[in-house]
Design brief:
By secondary structure, the chain is an alpha/beta fold. The chain is 35% helix and 23% strand.
Length: 530
């Protein structure tokens, strides 16, 4: 069978400095044995790479041993992780450690000013993109092509205590097996601010996700009456107010902002395997070591998706952070691994085209990060009786492994198709923009190949048809002679790298038709395969 692949990337010297040599040795041994064995049983081959270690980087490139005090530190870390990704081409890229181990990339906030207080947005979006380092969010948005998540410990908390925070999260991830969808959708915990339109927005979201419009509101629901029974469901979606300098999330009623949740509210009350999609400001900000996100992750949470800075909501409709919550959970409940779920949610968010996004949309896409192993799959795929019978032909002992492998193939096919839709739909698709840059160059197919490569695509078939000179009666020169033209038609088939052109009867490629006249590109169109 064909396994998927995952690279866990981290900085060895930073882990040793933070947790101590003995704890690092234990961590490394666990990752390369028990954790990797568990992944292999799920059909995922896992490799651990320390980007500052020469042995680990052998065959990949030069290790990067710089310091956070270096002015180009973030750029160099992004560059070396890109080199690791390009060499290994994994299905999943997993960052190991808080930002004091592997930094977020500080992006310039396009929405800064006019009430937005964040000049920068700490982000993991650049690691999810094949684009070169930049602090400009726009650079990454047309090239989001990696399934990325971060297994984090508490930022700034080291030694034995900090090590145990990280290790508990790893143990939760290793112990998880995909569950039936009903275990995530039959019951859920949802809370929002009790102010105009906020309950309406989450009633709409919950009706779409769960078929129920139930939502708790604050201050009507206070920390003192949030019970373990209320928190027990495996799905948590919430939008509250948050702050960068304390441990609580807040509700609202008019000008009053009472505490809605704090670490004590959830500590010890979260079910194993919980998935959280949160839209409080600074909800996924890791710089406060006692914050809500850390308490969630240390309380058996499998995955947490949230924002690192001030997050927007969108009454009267579902916009910004609320939209990311909805799109991410939809993908999770559709049996996607959480890294793929965020990848697809981002693709869906910008499916109308990059030019259709406003500055708040761009900030939303930049600040939303995933704290989990990207290969973690909360919900298992429901297979048909025929599929189950086919699996059993491989032997009952291998049924679980074969089932999981088949599930991931189906899920990845869905994600690739979404990526294709994103690439070829909307205003100014990225590939067409690249193609229009070589209007006077006769070597059209080479440029299409180069443009596709930058977008994680590949040309697997091309045909060049040069028509004989044709006479056009509407093009007559001054002396009455009939003008002639040289026409060339290029039909280039493009698909995602490493993917069959047809999977399960679904075409996963597009045909790019380029019409040249006298060595100038006259028209570019997309042809759907039949």
């Amino acid at each position: 069978m064909q396994f998927e692949s995952k690279v866990i990337v981290s900085k060895k010297s930073a882990l040793i400095s933070k947790y101590g040599q003995n704890n690092f040795n234990s961590l490394n041994s666990y990752l390369e044995t028990s954790y990797a064995d568990n992944d292999r049983n799920r059909g995922v081959n896992t490799k651990v790479v320390y980007f500052d270690d020469s042995t680990s980087m052998q065959g990949i490139g030069t290790p990067y041993t710089g310091s956070p005090s270096d002015s180009d530190y973030q750029e160099k870390v992004k560059d070396v992780i890109d080199k690791i990704y390009d060499k290994e081409v994994p299905d999943y890229l997993c960052i190991l450690g808080a930002p004091d181990i592997v930094p977020h990339i500080d992006l310039t906030n396009p929405a800064y000013g006019g009430g937005d207080p964040d000049p920068i947005v700490p982000s993991d979006l650049p690691y999810a993109s094949s684009a070169d380092y930049s602090q400009n969010v726009d650079v990454y948005l047309s090239k989001i092509d990696r399934s990325v998540g971060r297994i984090t410990g508490r930022n700034g908390v080291g030694g034995d205590d900090g090590f145990m925070h990280l290790f508990r999260f790893l143990m939760t991830l290793a112990a998880h097996n995909p569950k039936d969808k009903s275990e995530y959708t039959d019951r859920y915990f949802s809370i929002t601010m009790e102010q105009t339109n906020r309950p309406n927005v989450y009633q709409s979201i919950n009706q779409s996700l769960y078929g129920s419009n139930q939502v708790y509101t604050s201050p009507h629901t206070a920390p003192s009456n949030i019970t373990q029974t209320m928190l027990a469901p495996l799905s948590h979606d919430l939008t509250l107010h948050g702050s960068s300098d304390n441990n609580s999330w807040y509700g609202q009623m008019g000008g009053s902002y009472p505490v809605a949740m704090n670490p004590a509210t959830i500590d010890g009350k979260i079910s194993v395997g919980t998935v959280v999609a949160a839209n409080p400001c600074y909800g996924a900000q890791l710089y406060n070591p006692g914050g809500m996100v850390n308490t969630y992750l240390e309380s058996h949470t499998l995955a947490f998706m949230g924002a690192t800075t001030v997050s927007y909501s969108g009454p009267p409709g579902v916009h910004y952070g609320d939209k990311m919550v909805k799109l991410f959970l939809q993908e999770v409940y559709d049996s996607n691994p959480v890294g793929d779920a965020l990848l697809s949610a981002r693709a869906s968010y910008i499916s109308g085209g990059i030019s259709s996004l406003n500055d708040s949309d761009k900030k939303t896409l930049a600040q939303g990060i995933l704290l989990s192993d990207p290969s973690a799959q909360p919900v298992k795929e429901a297979l048909s009786a025929n599929q189950m019978n086919m699996m059993k032909l491989g032997g009952a002992s291998n049924l679980g492994l074969l089932e999981n492998a088949a599930i991931r193939k189906v899920n990845r096919r869905r994600n690739y198709i979404q990526k294709l839709d994103l690439l070829f739909r909307g205003k100014g698709p990225a590939l067409l923009q690249e193609a229009k840059g070589f209007v006077t160059d006769p070597d059209v197919e080479k440029h299409i190949k180069d443009a596709a490569d930058m977008l994680g695509m590949e040309v697997f078939y091309s045909k060049r048809m040069k028509r004989p000179e044709r006479h056009h009666t509407d093009k007559v020169n001054k002396v009455g002679n009939i003008a002639s033209t040289n026409e060339v038609h290029h039909f280039v088939h493009i698909k995602p790298k490493g993917v069959d052109s047809v999977l399960d009867g679904i075409f996963t490629y597009k045909i790019l038709h380029v019409h040249e006249v006298n060595d100038k590109v006259r028209n570019i169109e997309i042809i759907e395969p039949n």
